[in-house]
Structure to design on (362 residues):
């Protein structure tokens, strides 16, 4: 007799993971929205520096990292939630906020963890289609908020479509959402967003709306994806307390904490890398559009392109892989006939553009 699992477990969708990690070094890894920059040597040294004390548990209060983030953003440490990646904070939020009769509203396609979050809690997912420009339709999202809604998720810039809505548009949504409904503004890619301007700007919304949470990560702009450090800046301390209540202790290891604290000390280098990434992104978009393809207006470290009618997505993904370039198929992310491509180094981007031209021309 096999083990009988809970009904909600059977409803949870499998998270679409990228492959290719076993293909060796001579591959352009453009499938997972990772930074193409290695961590700064001083950041790597900070992580390595704690390995001699791995017989001890990490600081369960995460005091050093909370203080460093509090100093950077000007909010109290008690309003900063941390997690083993931003996904950890999201799933904890789902557990803390959602019940089987609750609703969670989000755009689709968006971050693939959102359906997982809803199914894991047994809540009803309300998926709102993007507009014709691959952007969030915030008016339609606001219309879907009901008395059963407990959580609204806004991925901005949106993964996988790379597009962003302005903070004025976000505030217009916040005015229409009741104060007891939590709104998470998922800003994993905000540092790359020209549309948003100053990445501190959303903090002004945080000060005005206690039900707002800004979710960010060290995986992208800081290049610490392997160490898994996410954080949330909370409009009220209640959110941080609630998500901590539903999780195990010691969810952030000591090496991750040390690396994140050190990374925050080097904003000049981070900004230089952002500038280079944006420049590479603009060149990549131009090269892809020169092939006659429609590309969404990107505000992230990746682009979202639509393949021509009659071109099979799987054939393009396979053809690129044969030429040493890994990208993500849109069908695995909620929309067939599209590709999500990370902005890599200039050489990687040139390799991608050449491979794409060869595949489409072949």
């Amino acid at each position: 007799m096999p083990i009988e699992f809970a009904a909600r477990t059977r409803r949870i969708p499998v998270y679409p993971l990228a492959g290719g990690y076993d293909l060796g070094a001579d591959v352009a890894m453009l499938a997972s929205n990772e930074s193409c920059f290695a961590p700064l040597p001083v950041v790597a040294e900070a992580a390595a520096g704690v390995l001699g004390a791995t017989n001890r548990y990490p600081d369960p209060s995460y005091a050093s990292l909370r203080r460093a983030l509090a100093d950077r953003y000007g909010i109290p440490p008690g309003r900063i939630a941390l997690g083993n990646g931003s996904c950890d904070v999201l799933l904890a939020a789902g557990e803390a906020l959602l019940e089987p009769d609750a609703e969670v509203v989000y755009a689709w396609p968006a971050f693939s963890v959102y359906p997982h979050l809803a199914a894991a809690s047994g809540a009803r997912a309300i998926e709102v289609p993007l507009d014709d420009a691959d952007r969030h339709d915030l008016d339609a999202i606001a219309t879907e908020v009901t008395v059963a809604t407990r959580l609204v998720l806004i991925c901005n810039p949106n993964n996988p479509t790379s597009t962003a809505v302005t903070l004025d548009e976000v505030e217009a949504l916040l005015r229409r959402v009741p104060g007891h409904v939590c709104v998470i503004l998922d800003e994993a890619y905000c540092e790359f967003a020209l549309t948003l301007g100053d990445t501190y700007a959303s903090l002004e919304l945080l000060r005005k709306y206690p039900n707002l949470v800004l979710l960010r990560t060290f995986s992208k702009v800081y290049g610490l994806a392997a160490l898994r450090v996410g954080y949330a800046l909370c409009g009220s301390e209640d959110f941080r307390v609630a998500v901590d209540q539903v999780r195990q202790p010691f969810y952030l290891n000591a090496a991750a904490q040390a690396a994140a604290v050190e990374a925050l000390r080097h904003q000049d280098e981070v900004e230089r890398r952002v500038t280079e990434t944006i420049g590479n992104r603009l060149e990549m978009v131009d090269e892809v559009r020169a092939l006659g393809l429609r590309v969404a207006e990107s505000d992230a470290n990746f682009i979202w392109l639509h393949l021509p009618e009659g071109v099979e997505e799987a054939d393009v993904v396979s053809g690129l892989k044969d030429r040493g370039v890994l990208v993500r198929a849109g069908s695995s992310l909620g929309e067939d006939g599209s590709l999500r491509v990370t902005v890599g180094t200039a050489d990687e981007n040139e390799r991608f553009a050449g491979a794409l031209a060869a595949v489409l021309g072949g």
